[in-house]
Structures are given as structure tokens and as C-alpha cells.
Design goal:
alpha/beta, 7-stranded mixed β-sheet, 3-stranded mixed β-sheet, globular
């Protein structure tokens, strides 16, 4: 079998919109075969992003409250409703060529969930899924959000795993438009967890689930 390679780019901490532009550019390069499948990893400045199915009423904070919290609101092209990105969260944007087989899309989202479940398991945390509400859950609390877009066979957007997140920043939204559910962060479950260690486990789990060759 030919080798299956993954390029991983650690972007550090950056604002949302420039990284979205990078996603779009990388996706076009992937379509043209100029780059291999790529995983962009980033820690965003605080932002609420609205998916294509978002209800604006799920942003409950006023403009003054948003200003006080230091959180921007940005329209996104991913699926889903409103979510939060911010410091202490590992955000992954896989830019993968899925080809023309539409059945792969559901499998792709399941593989993202499995990647994060494997990551959590390394720390003794049991993550689960909800077929109605995508993402990864610990009990009734969401620890990782997933929202994707497939454009001309190539994936954009991806996942956000709460590692050391100030959960108070979720106070201005109804996360993913889901009432009656909570959010959590890995450091509340594993107090001594290290951010960079989790990032390494995310990469390892991603490569295993998606069957990429080792570097």
C-alpha cells in the first residue's frame, strides 16, 4: 500500500479569522495536490463562532457584556450552532481530501469523535457520543465540540477540546443551542494535566484513528 502521510502544523495562539483564511488557502492547495492531508492545531483568542445553522438568540450576552468579556462574535462556514473558542482549548482543523464518496462524511465525523475519546482515555476519562448532538461528552457535559464543512471533497473546520478552559466564558451563549446540558474541561477531571501533553496525545490518536503512517 502507498504511504499515507499527515502534515501537522502547530500554530500556537492566534485570532480566529486569520486561521480561517489559512484553512481556506490550505484546502485549495490540498485540492490541487500541492500539499498532503494537513492537521492545523491552534489555541484561539476568545471568540464565539456562529455556524451556518446558528440561531442568533443563542448568543445571550449583550454587546456591552461581550465587550466586558473580551469576546468577539464571528460568522463561520462550519455546520452547527454557536460555540466558544478560547485559551486553554485545543482546536484542530483537519484539511483532508475525502474524495467524492459522500458516505465518508459520516465516517469522518465519527473518526473525529473517536480521536478525542482515545485522547481522553489516556487520562482515565471516559468520553461518550450522542448521535443527536455531535461532539464528545463526559456524562451530560460536553468536553469537545465538533463542527465541519466539506467543500469540493476537502474538509474544513473540525474539533475543539476543552483542556484548561475558563468555563465562565460560556456564560454568554447557549452552547451549540442545546438546553439543559453543561460543559466541562479536562483540567477539572485531571487537575495536573499538561496542555502540550494533551496536544501530543491528540496528534497520536488522530494518526491512529485515521490510519496515517508514523513520522
Amino acid at each position: 500500500m502507498p504511504s499515507k502521510q499527515l502534515r501537522v502544523q502547530n500554530l500556537g495562539r492566534r485570532a480566529y479569522e486569520p486561521v480561517f483564511e489559512l484553512q481556506e488557502a490550505t484546502a485549495e492547495e490540498r485540492r490541487q495536490g500541492l500539499v498532503p492531508d494537513t492537521l492545523l492545531l491552534v489555541e484561539h483568542d476568545a471568540v464565539y463562532t456562529l455556524g451556518t445553522n446558528a440561531d442568533n438568540d443563542n448568543v445571550t450576552a449583550s454587546e456591552d457584556q461581550l465587550k466586558d468579556m473580551g469576546i468577539d462574535v464571528v460568522q463561520s462556514t462550519r455546520g452547527g450552532d454557536v460555540t466558544y473558542h478560547g485559551p486553554g482549548q485545543i482546536v484542530g482543523y483537519p484539511i483532508i481530501d475525502l474524495g467524492k464518496e459522500r458516505a465518508q462524511v459520516v465516517r469522518y465525523v465519527r473518526n473525529l469523535e473517536e480521536t478525542l475519546i482515545k485522547t481522553l482515555a489516556h487520562y482515565g476519562v471516559t468520553g461518550g457520543t450522542d448521535r443527536k448532538n455531535r461532539g464528545v461528552w463526559v456524562g451530560s457535559d460536553k468536553i469537545a465540540a465538533i463542527g465541519v464543512r466539506i467543500s469540493r471533497g476537502v474538509t474544513l473546520h473540525g474539533f475543539a477540546l476543552n483542556v484548561k478552559v475558563d468555563l465562565g466564558q460560556y456564560a454568554g451563549i447557549i452552547p451549540c443551542g442545546i438546553q439543559g446540558k453543561g460543559v466541562t474541561s479536562l483540567d477539572l477531571l485531571v487537575p495536573d494535566v499538561e496542555f502540550e501533553d494533551v496536544k501530543a496525545k491528540v496528534i497520536e490518536s488522530f494518526m491512529e484513528v485515521f490510519e496515517y503512517d508514523s513520522k
